[in-house]
């Protein structure tokens, strides 16, 4: 009986340690359709600038985690309800978002641009040229907000849940232009085999941040890890690997 009691006690201890280890594994959301920041490679593995950046930050901050793919428009609500512990998904830092979640310091600076079919490039030089036209962008993004509040002259704004939908709709002539993040549009243009080009100036300079539920102690840890990457040059190397240029 004593042996059985000891065995049961040992089993309970191991089981408790297992639950404890599992509980310590954080859930980190990302958007799988945001190339070159996050996407699946030919082998089906997640990769991209955001993925590799988080992997290095987590290593330096001693964070145990697992990735959780999510639709972009569900990420902020999931952080608010604490169904996830962190998110790295090309999330633009805005006043509205910063009021409900915590952000790290900016890790990527960008802005919004316009993509059109090559044959229409001479007709669209600025966003004003999109007046009366059908424009596509991604759901729940800063570009969608810009088209809703700042530039309101479009005939129609079509919202899509993923980047591929933006490119397909533009090439199928379902929209006249796409208004979205600079680097994403450049990647879509590259994937179009010369059918799409990026035009105009950069609008609404913005920065991406890694997001956490309000009050999370991870924010300071990840900021410190990001500082260390910037100091030793590893951030610069990662940026140049994915974007072919130095960080702004």
Q: Helical percent range?
A: 25-40%
N-C termini distance:
69 Å
How is the main sheet built? 5 strands, mixed
Q: Please indicate the percent range of residues in DSSP E strands (runs of 2 or more).
A: 15-25%
Low-confidence stretches: 1-23
Mean pLDDT: 91
- Number of contiguous helices: 9
Overall, the morphology is: globular
Strand order of the largest sheet: 9-8-10-7-11
- Quaternary state of this entry equals single chain
How large, in whole angstroms, is the Cα Rg? Answer: 21 Å
Number of strands: 12
Order of helices and strands: HEEEHEHEHEEEHEHEHEEHH
Structural class: alpha/beta
Secondary structure topology:
Elements: H1 2-23, E1 26-30, E2 39-40, E3 46-47, H2 49-61, E4 65-69, H3 75-80, E5 86-87, H4 95-98, E6 101-103, E7 108-117, E8 134-138, H5 142-149, E9 156-160, H6 163-171, E10 177-181, H7 182-191, E11 196-208, E12 211-213, H8 218-232, H9 234-243
Parallel strand pairs: 1-4, 1-5, 8-9, 8-10
Antiparallel strand pairs: 2-3, 6-12, 7-10, 7-11
Describe this structure in words.
With 248 residues, the chain is α/β, with parallel strands linked by helices. The protein has helices spanning 2-23, 49-61, 75-80, 95-98, 142-149, 163-171, 182-191, 218-232, 234-243, and strands spanning 26-30, 39-40, 46-47, 65-69, 86-87, 101-103, 108-117, 134-138, 156-160, 177-181, 196-208, 211-213. The strands form four sheets. The chain has a five-stranded mixed β-sheet, with helices on both faces. It has a three-stranded parallel β-sheet with strand order 4-1-5. Strands 2-3 form a two-stranded antiparallel ribbon. Helix 5 (142-149) links the parallel strand 8 and strand 9 (156-160). The longest helix is centred in the N-terminal third of the chain and has 22 residues, at 2-23. It is globular. The relative contact order is 0.17.
